[in-house]
Amino acid sequence: MPQAKTGATPPLLPAFGEKVEPQRFGFLLVPNFSLIPFAAATEALRVANWLSGLTLYEWYFLTEDGRSVPAANGLEVAPHAKYDEAPPLNNIIVFAGGRVPPTLREERVLSWMRRQARAGVRIGAAGLGSFILARAGLLNDYRCTVHWKLLPKFRDEFPHLNATDEIYEIDRDRHTSSGGTGTLDVMLALIAGDHGETLASHVAEEFMHDRIRPSSHSQRMPLRFRLNITNRKVLNAVGLMEKSIENPLSCASIAESQGVSVRQLEKLFRAHLDTTPKEYQRQIRLKFARRLLMQTTLSVLEVGMATGFSCQSHFSKAYRAEFGVQPRHDRGKDSLL
């Protein structure tokens, strides 16, 4: 594996003075993989080597056919080898992205990963790579995660799996991340497990990552930043709405929970969100309904019930008023909306 040049002398950490057997990572790249998780993984290992002054990690880029593959942004990455021509590995991570769950063309690639898993190789995935591991049966009886926007589809396709909304999951010899910068956190956790928290913390600091986020950290941005408001009563009310989509709380119940009247809650929503609580709650439910229609096999009636509508006609009418089309029109469209 070619070693990256840093152009500077590494700040050797006191705990690292002796050579160790390097851990070998195989990064299996699926066409249209997301570049941020891939870069986060490779850079975390590179900086761990640099800071320690040792080759703690080696990594190899692998593809199905040994040819270059494009990232989602068009950047072509040349592999070191075809997947089954890699040297003996300790870890394999599948990188996949795009706007729909990816597939591997060759069943033999999945068979190769199963053999690696049986041989004790640690298997992981970043972002949509979790779909590939799930289809290979490599996440059975393991906790796992995927990007929050595709979690409904993942759970619909793999109802037997323990899929969480965590930013990453490490469960014995499997690890999955939700993608994006969550991959940096799972790599830092792996480095900490291999070589201690001191090294992992120094790696994090090199990336100006203020802390190693625990797996329980929310994938989504906090409401106060998403909505760009600070009013605690409005934020709490919206949080309650997002948590009660299937069984919507009444505006009276929400107002009571915040110690205000319905009229006061309406004034707060108009002042901070330029809408009413009832309208905002309706939009939350309908946006989630749209995602279910696009990602899952639930019927229109089932989607309506899952988002708190008592009958299909009421749901269809509300959906058309919001999006300008009937619910069936959005079936199977862009998964990442």
Descriptive report:
The structure is a single chain. This protein is an alpha/beta fold and 337 residues long. The mean pLDDT is 89. The chain is 42% helix and 14% strand. α1 packs parallel to α5, α1 (35-52) packs across α6 (197-206) and α8 (232-243) packs parallel to α11 (277-295). Strands 5-2-1-6-7-11-10 form a seven-stranded mixed beta sheet, with helices on both faces. The two termini are 39 Å apart. It is globular, with a radius of gyration of 23 Å. The longest helix has 19 residues, at 277-295. It has helices at 35-52, 107-118, 129-135, 151-157, 182-195, 197-206, 223-226, 232-243, 251-257, 262-273, 277-295, 300-306, 312-323; strands at residues 23-29, 57-63, 69-70, 76-77, 81-82, 91-96, 122-127, 143-145, 162-164, 168-171, 174-177.
Number of domains: 2
Order of the strands making up the biggest sheet: 5-2-1-6-7-11-10
Radius of gyration: 23 Å
What are the secondary-structure elements, in order, as H or E? EHEEEEEHEHEHEEEHHHHHHHHH
Q: Categorize the overall geometry.
A: globular
Q: Largest sheet at a glance? A: 7 strands, mixed
Mean pLDDT: 89
Low-confidence segments = none
Number of helices: 13
Binned, the helix content reads: 40-55%
Structural class: alpha/beta
Break the fold down into its secondary structure elements and pairings:
Layout: E1 23-29, H1 35-52, E2 57-63, E3 69-70, E4 76-77, E5 81-82, E6 91-96, H2 107-118, E7 122-127, H3 129-135, E8 143-145, H4 151-157, E9 162-164, E10 168-171, E11 174-177, H5 182-195, H6 197-206, H7 223-226, H8 232-243, H9 251-257, H10 262-273, H11 277-295, H12 300-306, H13 312-323
Parallel strand pairs: 1-2, 1-6, 2-5, 6-7, 7-11, 8-9
Antiparallel strand pairs: 3-4, 10-11
Helix pairs in contact: 1-5, 1-6, 4-11, 5-6, 8-11
